[in-house]
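Batch manifest, entry 17 of 40.
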Amino acid sequence: MNTELFKGEKLYSSGDFKLCRESYAAINVAIGDNQAVGIIAGYYDEDLTIAYVSEFFLHNLGYSYEEFMEAVAGSLKNVFCGENDGFIRNERLVKIHGSEDVKMLNKEGAPVKIRAYKTDSFDNEGTPLWILSAHIDEMQENMQLVNQVISSGFWSVKCDQHGKPTDVFFSYEFRKMLGYHNILDFPDSLETWQAGVHPGDIEMVDKAFYDAFRDCTDETKYDVEYRMRLADGSYQWFRDKGEVSRCADGTAFHMVGIFVNIDKEKKAAQYTRRADAFHRAYTKANLCEYYVDLKENSFDSMKVEEGLAGLFGKNITWDEMIGRFTDTYVVWEDREMMKQFYDRAYIARKLEEGSEEINLECRILMNGNMRWIRNVIIRDSAGDNSRYALVFVSDVTEAKRKEKNLKEITSQNRIMNQLIKGTVKLVDCYAACDLERDIYHFYSQNMNDSACKPEGKYCEFVEFMASRFKTVSGNLTLKQAFSVENIRKMLKGPDDIYRFEYCTRDEKQFKSIAISPLAWKEGKAVTVLFISHDTTNFLKDSADISANWKGTCQS
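Output type: structure tokens
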């Protein structure tokens, strides 16, 4: 036994196990890094068998060696309680290295909070060992209870000789607030913490954090509020505050801090600010705001437009004020309905009937300009339903102007739609033709005319039309007129229109067609629109009129 290492403490063994020099070195590290008062070590077998237990460890849990081994059945899995799955599952325990806050049961069955430090080694036969040092600190336990009460967690950072942050420790409560359980879920590293800070806050937080370390005068404090990502991916607000310990020359060597959940308070404050902003925005549009006692014929002015302030005198009643306002500002055509609207008996009756709000729009003349106002009366839910009312008078002139413009635009659109419908009635059929890709889409107003396929190759469309129709002039065949070369020849610019007449082969139906560019590229039409309408009746009427005139002249 290494008596210098344990200074007289006994180290109990549960079997014929022997520690080697490396094992003692690992135990020394576990003790030194945790200021431990006890050691427990064992093997990575199925039960995580306990091989060694120190007397200090047993004393602080209230056990004798025999009582402890009987209580836990010689297995590390039975030592812990609570959310310590990292120490009772082999595949997770082997990954843990460093400090972790855990709970162990003492002899009375009460949970004891312990700072555990875990490291690995092997025995003299080369078999892997897990080694835990246990540090029980009543002040730390009290601190953890306080953290639970105020929803906070402890953290600390160690620095190198140049004051640069290196090692970090996050308490169990810190991790728990974020939805994590142990060092595997949320490792002790600055990178882990920084990765969880909201992208919108990380620049500000990083600057405040490192500025606090760099300021040798200790005047710059780390005290920030920011959003932190939880294990479920959501964000909550936290306040993070730390104090730096420094060497004589001002170089930082240690920082400790507290991490407090302020999500409820922050969101409540944000809600209040939004509500205040909404109220300010709402009242900004109001000319006047009043709290009216309908029974006593009195009122309190919460807000009055500067130009209307002259209406008020000492001991003026609500009826007198309404009378002066109506006679002074309301246009003559709206005065009667304004007086009826603000009649106290009428208001009380409407409120008593259950109306939550009554309103009226009217016109006023103010500073020589006509303005529209909206008068709104709502009940005061805190008082008598028919006695107290809130009155708001707001300027809606701009809203009225926009409403008028909208009606004019709607009317213009309605007229345009009628014109379009009238124009469409003249169109017999139309087609969109892509001359580059040899594609067409055909649309017919005559539902009975289904001989032409709705889409296909343009060359097939030309063949179909040429088989049923011919040009009236006879200068070009219909196939020649519809050729890509001829269309591009006739359409010299993107605004040109190529027109001609054609008819059925038996000359019983006549049509007029207009071809115009839809897409123009590199000086030529790429896509064109064919619009055709039937002129048979027009030509027939013209022929009949001509024949009648000819007969009359001959007579």
